[in-house]
Amino acid sequence: MAQVTVGGVEQQSGVRPARPETSGNTTFRRRRAFQHRRDRRGLWFVLPFIVVFVMFLVIPLVYAVYTSFFTTRLIGGTVFSGFANYTQALTSGAFWTGMGRTILFAAIQVPIMIIIAAFFAAMFDLGVARFGTFFRTVFFLPFAVPAVVATSMWGSMLQTNVGVFPKIFADLGLPNPNFFGPGHLLGVIVLIAIWEWTGFTIIILYTALRSVPRDVVESAVVDGAKLSRIVTRIKLPIIRPAIILVVIINVIGALQLFTEPYLLAPIAPNISSNYTPTLYMYNEAFSAQFYNFAAAIAVVLALVIIIISGAFLLSQRRKGAVV
Amino acid sequence: MSTAVLTSPGPDRQSRRQSRRSSDVVPLRLYGARRRTVNIVTLLCGVFAVFTLIPIWWIFVSSTKTVPNLNSTFAFWFARPFVLWDNIKNVFSNQEAGSFLTWMENTAIYAAAGAVGATVLSAMAGYGFARFNFRGRTALFLFVMAALLIPIAAFAVPLYLIYAKFHLDSTAPGIFIPFMISPVSVYLMRVYAGGSVPQEMLDAARIDGAGEAKIFLRVAVPLMVPALVTVFMLNFVAAWNNYFLPFIVNNSARLYTLTQGLAIWMNHTNIAGSSEDYTALTITAGMITITPLILMFLVLQRYWRSGLLLGGMTG
């Protein structure tokens, strides 16, 4: 439960002020009246966030939908064109090849990363690994590295002919791996994404594991359960909501893939202008100035993401997990 | 293995003892974990640590090399001449696409403004959601959480179009205000305020006649400090590392972020026939970019390593 971990942090940072020990009956009786009377004031605390949220997120979204129903022509200006942009996006191979590729990317990258992260999180949680504190710190470091720098580093190290890894391959007498050729390109991007996000996922899962009450594990130990069984049958099922959350967050991030392929494009000729939907949208908007069409792509992408993550959430709920 | 409770040495030890963490670890031998299991797991940790550290080690080593040496010497070890200082000077003196120092200042300002804004807005909203039962609370909260499913890509281009109408494109507020919207932070603050701000204390303050704003600032905020620090850090890092949003809404070199500037230098290195010097510039600039955040992580590690981060998720 939340309280367990929250309490731990408070003690660590030493900011917990003394709680009033006397909460007598009179206070308790008055509490309801106060709660009721002050109810609406809560809205004033929520309002500032909601204002920024609506102005900078909701309105742009609504505008995206609105503007996607128009078309700007050289002659005649901007005219209402109904679903023309959507028809064009949905019937063109350009959108679906990119969409298919990012779905494949997510289907490879997210499971691999979650399995690696869950394994290390569980090992740290049960104290199986030596130097656990040191390794947790190291694993989290890539979170401090912007995707731009991560892509730059991996791109330089893997670059054909000049990168260190192709050179090592050559020194070992192995064939030129051509990391940015059509065969390995997506794999390289998967590798970069795993490097960037595994540490953060480990921390989230580790934190969730730590908040599982200790007696759950103790009783399993008393029953003679082995290590692997404790991890896969007891601990990981308990933190299922946390796992579902990291899966959702990472799937949404993966389906918006942009920075890595955009920056790798100059050294990887196979990255086309529609390599991912976001890249396609960007190029339609800013290279071709087809803003209305780009808005339609954005809306379709958002719908695909909502449908995929919604379907995943529903399937998990049906299995009995409540998020 | 005789005691089997692995308390690792390090700065974390004291805080662990305070929170009685180490006693939470069930003795290993009770699991039936053999020494061999421990060794294999530790070895796997080592392998993944090498994978994690390879690029970071590479960029620190490479930032000390001359351009010819980058290609002709072993990439994972130092080579003479050691030109780290010259490389750093070159990074700061290059004036193409604005200057590195300006990017750094810009990024620091955007990240700080965005993170402060995100922390203030989400602390207020989280407290409001957790401790008041106003009409429409659940609906409003779900509405905010639904935004988690919205990709940045879906509103970045329309945001740019709206900015263009109101002359907010290529302005500092246009870049950092979107950083203030963090539904995850609202969620964290709601969970944390719900768990750490006792209703009895708020009621007591009300009986004493304190106003709601004063109660929030004097009673609730001090209790929420650990969550405030974590949310600030998460949003600071997210803003510092963000590329896509500034890339879309800003094309003024004066207002470039580090990631924007670096991406431009990177493109120079990759285009055939361009100046080779940009290779060294990009590497050294990348090294300078990641150093402050890595230091910040090492200094503030008890916050992100403690149980706070998303701690309520199993609740």
User: Total strand count of chain A, please?
Assistant: 2
Q: Please count the helical segments of chain A.
A: 15
**In sequence order, what are the helices and strands of chain B, one letter per element?**
HHHHHHHHHHHHHHHH
Name the beta content range of chain A.
under 5%
Structural class of chain A: mainly alpha
CATH class of chain A: Mainly Alpha
Q: What is the CATH topology of chain A? A: MetI-like fold
In this structure, how is the largest beta sheet of chain A organized?
2 strands, antiparallel
Within CATH, the superfamily of the largest domain in chain B carries the name: MetI-like
CATH architecture of the largest domain in chain B: Orthogonal Bundle
Count of individual domains of chain A: 1
User: What is the global morphology of chain B?
Assistant: globular
CATH architecture of chain A: Orthogonal Bundle
Structural class of chain B: mainly alpha
Count up the helices of chain B: 16
CATH superfamily of chain A: MetI-like
Task: Give helix and strand order of chain A, one letter per element, not per position.
Answer: HHHEEHHHHHHHHHHHH
Terminal-residue CA separation of chain A: 14 Å
Question: What is the C-alpha radius of gyration of chain B, as a whole number of Å?
Answer: 24 Å
